[in-house]
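Hi C.,

You asked whether I'd gotten around to modeling the 431-residue construct. I have! Everything is below, sequence then structure, no commentary in between.
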Amino acid sequence: MSNGQRGRGPGAGEPGAAPRTWQARALPDEGTDTAGRGGLRILILEDNPADAELEQRLLAGAGLDFTAVAVDTAASYAQQIDAFHPDVILADFSLPGFSGEGAIKIARERCPDTPVIVVSGAIGDEAAVELIRQGATDYILKDRPGRLAPVIRRAVAEAEQRSRLARMQAHLQRAQHLESIGRLADGVAHELNNQVGAILSYAAFIRDQATGTLQRGTRLDLPGMSRNAEHIEQAGQRMIKLVSQLREAGNRDVLRAELIDLNKVIGGIDELLRSTVGASTEFRLCLSPRLRPVTAYPGQVEQILMNLTTNARDAMPDGGSFSIQTQSLTLGHSEAADLGLSSGSYVCLTARDSGTGMEPEVIEHAFEPFFTTKPFAEGGGLGLATVYGMTRQAGGTAAISSAAGTGTTVTVWLPAAIPGHPAGVPGQRSP
């Protein structure tokens, strides 16, 4: 594709006029990752319209794929930072009533991760060092326009690398946190199971005693005693299940995986899933044909599906829509690294509901064991934690996309089985 101006807003006007928009569509440089984002978003703070126009033509000529918005006042600059969400900012060093220092300060407050490149007709070394200290990414002299495109490419690439590193660190911290909880689960599981065993033994004794007394015709409230014994048994069974879920959430149980077809597992419990969400909810399955097999434990996959379905039902007390989708896909190095995975072939399971959604602070902790926004009696906070633990145990990962009032989407990535591979899966990245 050749370079060229695709669309251009109105020309230069008086200071404070409406922002001027300029677009160029060209093949991006290999070092600039603009795929899928419609090109770079560049905010230009410049009071000289000719200079702003020249900068944009230089960038288009250098092969950058971008959309630029030019402003010339502090107020319009701050407004466009919020509205335009720039990937990079070009700020003139000196404007009437405004300065490069002021532009850097506003950018650091409103978009701290966005590179700010100061453009100046003349700037000394001391002033340049001070700008970098205040938060500028780099600076360019107007008499050296050839540096403009390379500096932007490098600044954007470095910003993307920092963002990717931050996401990977967040994945690592979450994995370490769950690992510590798993170790704690191991420590308490033995003693807790001993106590549960005692509860079950005494409950069985009470029930047998009640049955024998009833046969002898005494006047004691033996039916009530029998019911209480049954309640004790049920409580004990729930505690055993809780221990099992806690261990699974902490990724501590070792199970024998099998080569399975995810579509067949879903089809096998289709009716159960439909009855779980209820008749007031529209239930849809979108299963991709010729889905690649995965190596996983079938019981765990069923538990993942049930937990996702139960969570969706609870988020839609008055009904709504719920869908489960499967597809095969390939993750490249960058996309896989963002998820804490190795690149390769995966099977993607997506569960989407139209429920109440989650606030950002809830999403941040949603995969943690025992974290819940519901009363404990309604759910112990292990649903999503179990999903995450089981998925990691199968060599994959899970993620949540949600906002309050807009529903929730939970995505699970499971490694596709590799023919001839001893483990059947490509494996996770080391944390």
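If it helps when you're writing up: The two ends are 41 Å apart (CA to CA).

Thanks,
B.
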